[in-house]
Amino acid sequence: MTASLAMGQYGFYVWTSLAVFIVVLLVDTLAPLARRRRNLRELRARLARQENRRRPGTAPRNEPNP
Amino acid sequence: MANWVPLWLHRLGSPPVFYRFAGIVRPWALGLALVLGAAALYGGLFIAPADYQQGDAYRIIFIHVPSAWMSLFIYGVMAVAAFIGLVWRIKLAETVAMESAPIGAAFTLITLVTGSLWGKPMWGTWWTWDARLTSELVLLFIYFGIVGLYHSFEDRRQGARAAAFLVLVGAVNVPIVHFSVNWWNTLHQGSTVRLLGPSHIVASMLWPLLTMMAATKCYYIASLFGRVRADLIASEGGKAWVRDIALADDREAA
What we know:
heterodimer, A: mainly alpha, 2 helices, 0% strand, rod-shaped, B: mainly alpha, 9 helices
């Protein structure tokens, strides 16, 4: 097992390649998920502000504008 | 053809319908990509025999070649979507084209870095300015240019249209990358796997390669759908269906 993990004398090149492959795709997967959550959060904040402007003084309520 | 097919495609082109569809398909595509990718890596790194000339260094092929295929395949999908978006002004097609570019850039980057890591022990150099390597580097810059142009406009659709033109112009580079090993004298080896005619590879090395190809295809679907969902939330933020999603998520979180 350790012999096949060493990849002959080329362990560094093979395992670095694998690491690059995994890290780049991991970033590519996670970035849009974070972007979607951030956009939804900003949208909720904007809706709450609009609600507050429409009926000043009341606590922001989460319902679609009529 | 039965007319429910075009009808279904037409409905799928509507952002809220596609958002839901993509949300259902994405986890399955990602799961399939992980299973296939793990099988391919196990087969490629541990089961397949060492190469008679390159020893174990050749095992980089199981990452490098599927990534290189994807760097060109994604460009093809992006070009078709950009063309549809430009001609028929279908918003979803523009979004698919624009959100494909970062994934294509990711695979092109992987191709260049793993190629470099393969070149050092085999060729004795990290980099050489030959046709295959240079045209693949140009491909990376084209991807960067598309992403940059899309985000440099205040109006997203205007940005998407400008970048879609760049996609179509940049498409000339795709056949150059593909045929560069035949057209020019290069350090890079020729194609190992052929669609037409026999492949120059033994079966125990071929199946991990093809399995990884399927895994990267599934990964592309998963990543694209995740990105399109994020893009639609941002660009359709003023519409009722996105507001409903934002408020429904809020209730779930509360």
